[in-house]
Amino acid sequence: MTYNKKDIILSIVLMIFIISFAVVFTVFFKQLYYFDINYLNIDKISGLSVETIKENYDILINYQSIFYQGDLNLPDFTMSVAGRIHFQEVKTIFEVIQVSMLISGIISIILLIKRFKEKEYRFLRLTGIITILIPSILGFLVAIDFDQAFIIFHKLFFRNDFWIFDYRTDPVITILPETFFMHCFILIVLIIVVFALLCLIFYRYKQKQIISDTNL
C-alpha cells in the first residue's frame, strides 16, 4: 500500500498528538499515584500520613500545568537549590509536551475533517503502524532493564545530575519511588497502544464499508 504526502503528514501529526496526550493524561491522572500510595507503602516508607502525601503530590502535579504560574512550594518538604531547579526543568519539559498536544490536536482535527470528506482513510493504517512501533520498541528496552532505562532517560533530557536526589536535602524523593514511574510508563504505553489499535480497527471498518457500498 502506498501513502501520499497528506497521509504521511497527518499520520505524523496524529502520532505526536497520541503520544503527547498519553503523557499528559498520565501525569495528571492522580488516581494512579493515590493507588500506589497504598500499593507501594509510600506512607510507611516516608513516615507521613496518606492525606499529607496526597496534598504535597497534588501541589507538585498542579505545578506542572501550563496554566500554573508561580513557584513550587511543598508545605511538608524542604528543597535544595538543585532540587528546585530540577522540578523547574521538569515543568519546562511537560509544558512543551502540553503545548505539543494542543497544537497537534488542533491540526489533527482540521486535517481529519479534510481526509474524511475526501473519504481517504489510509492514514489511519499508517498512524496505527508507526504509533504502535514506538511503545513496542521502548517497552522492550525498558522491560530488559528499567533501572538502566530510567537513568538513560534522565541523561538524555537533563544536562545535569540534579535529578539524583538526596533524601536528606530533598526528602520529597521518599514519596516518589522509582516503581511509581515505571507504572506511569506502563500506563503511557497502554494508552498509546489502545489509540494505535483503534486507528487500525477503524481503518478496517471503513475499508469494509467502502467495499460494501461498492458492491451495492
TrEMBL record:
| UniProt feature coiled coil, ranges | none
Which keywords label this protein? Membrane, Transmembrane, Transmembrane helix
One short Pfam family name for this protein?
Lit
> Where do transmembrane segments lie in this chain?
7-29, 93-112, 124-144, 180-203
| Annotated InterPro entries | Lit
The organism's place on the tree of life at top rank: Bacteria
Q: Which NCBIfam families does the entry mention?
A: integ_TIGR01906
Q: What is this protein called?
A: TIGR01906 family membrane protein
Name its species.
Thomasclavelia spiroformis
